[in-house]
């Protein structure tokens, strides 16, 4: 049952600057997304000669299409590792913002930097947070996605980020999910237009004859520990159900044979209904009924403490939705926490549904800059719970997961930077270009020991460099923790 998983998160970036000491609110200049991103990534470019860096925690930081900062976690085989690695990405970006603030101040400018871990901008453009699961090459991808479609359409009840959307008349409405409005097909190769819930990208980053990567792009970016845990953990249990069925298990669930005739329309209807009573399947099952059926089927596959926590939280969320009491889960689930915030502010200040301050509050929830983001402030004030132990996410900025090949990549990167070696890495390959035969390919993502990697690290310390290639990257000992 061990498998590797990972998350990729695209962030929204907003920067305004004005002269230091300006006495009035006027004078702010908003930077273009490209200018803001280039300034944010200046330390990365200085160290790596590119807006792409592999970090000492085994993850990857880079600029994606549209000048979106993106962070990909290292491979993780436990849910705790994955939640911590995901949070580490927020800290890495926040540290880059701190460094950029210092640089602008030296130029006599006062910046206001916001980095949003959300999925839609003010122009209704969407960007994603993608979940990756290692699955068998023998699995029928189309059949798997067809079976998963009712689960994915309704999973936003568990782990939607919440969204305050204004209609054409300017009236605001609360939705469970930000991504739901941008989903169309269950499965396709598209990523920007006509987005699918599962993308067919076939990059297993492992032995391609044995494995493929299930690339799930329907989910919202999540900020709270428990929501991220439930988001990935419920998907893990759903995959186990389908894999057991494929292997001939007698475990059955009615939802596995149900179809959704118009998934794009269904996922939007579910997003607009906080009661979970919207019919979803062709035979009329509601979002709540679909989720309860998957929950019951999942019970047989709970075999460790992490998944037991997932299964229990899953039920708690469904019961709260069923009872019309989202306040019960507002200390752990993103959409419920945001709903509580907006409702409280409307009541306190007598805001109408078209009040623009509500959209501003909803956006501020997602800001990951310390002291600015409302989700992180709610954590500091004890209004929402943490699942991770104190300090785990901070350590994950520098430390890789210990149960996957990320630990080998991290050791290689650290040694190469310390010895100023000409090196490159990707998910499977470690290459020291100024050593003869200095390349190792690690195909098994679950391996944590490899004598070839140990030998390559030893050679970095003992063997002289051969002539550097023209593509040499500086390999400066840069890491996120050095940024502030």
TrEMBL record:
InterPro entries referenced in this protein's UniProt entry, alphabetically: Pup_ligase/deamidase (IPR004347)
Source species: Luteococcus japonicus
One Pfam family in the UniProt entry: Pup_ligase
Polar residues bias (residue ranges): 469-484
Record GO terms (molecular function): ATP binding
The organism's place on the tree of life at top rank: Bacteria
Listed PANTHER family: PUP DEAMIDASE/DEPUPYLASE, PUP--PROTEIN LIGASE
Protein name as it appears in the record: Proteasome accessory factor A
Keyword Iron recorded: no
GO BP field: modification-dependent protein catabolic process; proteasomal protein catabolic process; protein pupylation
């Amino acid at each position: 049952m061990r498998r590797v998983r990972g998350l990729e998160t695209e962030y929204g970036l907003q920067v305004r600057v004005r002269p230091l000491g300006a006495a009035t609110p006027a004078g702010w200049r908003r930077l273009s997304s490209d200018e803001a991103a280039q300034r944010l990534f200046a330390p990365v470019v200085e160290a790596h000669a590119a807006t792409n860096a592999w970090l000492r925690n085994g993850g990857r930081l880079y600029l994606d299409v549209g000048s979106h900062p993106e962070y990909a976690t290292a491979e993780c085989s436990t849910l705790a590792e994955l939640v911590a690695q995901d949070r580490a990405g927020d800290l890495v970006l926040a540290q880059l913002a701190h460094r950029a603030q210092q640089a602008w101040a030296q130029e006599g400018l006062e910046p206001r930097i916001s980095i949003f871990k959300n999925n839609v901008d003010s122009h209704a453009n969407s960007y994603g947070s993608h979940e990756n699961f290692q699955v068998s090459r023998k699995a029928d991808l189309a059949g798997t996605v067809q079976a998963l479609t009712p689960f994915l359409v309704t999973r936003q009840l568990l782990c939607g980020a919440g969204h305050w959307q204004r209609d054409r008349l300017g009236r605001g409405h609360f939705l469970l999910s930000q991504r739901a409005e941008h989903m169309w097909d269950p499965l396709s190769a598209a990523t920007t237009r006509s987005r699918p819930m599962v993308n067919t990208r076939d990059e297993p980053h492992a032995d391609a004859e044995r494995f493929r990567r299930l690339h799930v792009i329907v989910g919202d970016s999540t900020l709270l520990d428990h929501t991220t845990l439930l988001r990935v953990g419920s998907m893990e249990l759903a995959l186990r159900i389908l894999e057991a069925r494929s292997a001939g298990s007698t475990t059955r669930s009615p939802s596995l044979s149900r179809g959704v005739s118009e998934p794009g329309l269904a996922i939007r209807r579910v997003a607009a209904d906080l009661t979970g009573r919207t019919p979803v399947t062709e035979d009329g099952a509601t979002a709540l009924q679909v989720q309860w059926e998957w929950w019951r089927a999942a019970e047989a596959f709970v075999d460790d403490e992490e998944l037991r926590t997932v299964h229990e939280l899953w039920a708690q969320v469904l019961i709260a939705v069923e009872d019309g009491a989202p306040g019960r889960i507002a200390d752990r689930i993103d959409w419920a926490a945001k709903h509580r915030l907006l409702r409280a502010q409307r009541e306190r200040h007598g805001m109408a549904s078209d009040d623009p301050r509500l959209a501003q509050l909803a956006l501020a929830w997602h800001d990951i800059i310390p002291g600015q983001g409302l989700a992180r402030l709610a954590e500091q004030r004890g209004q929402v719970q943490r699942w991770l132990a104190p300090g785990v996410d901070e350590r994950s900025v520098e430390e890789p997961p210990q149960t996957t090949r990320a630990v080998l990549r991290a050791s290689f990167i650290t040694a190469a930077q310390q010895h100023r070696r000409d090196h490159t890495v990707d998910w499977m390959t470690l290459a020291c270009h100024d050593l003869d035969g200095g390349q190792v390919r690690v195909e098994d993502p679950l391996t944590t020991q490899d004598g070839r990697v140990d030998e390559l690290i030893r050679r970095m310390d003992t063997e002289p460099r051969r002539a550097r290639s023209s593509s040499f990257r500086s390999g400066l000992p840069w890491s996120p923790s050095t940024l502030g």
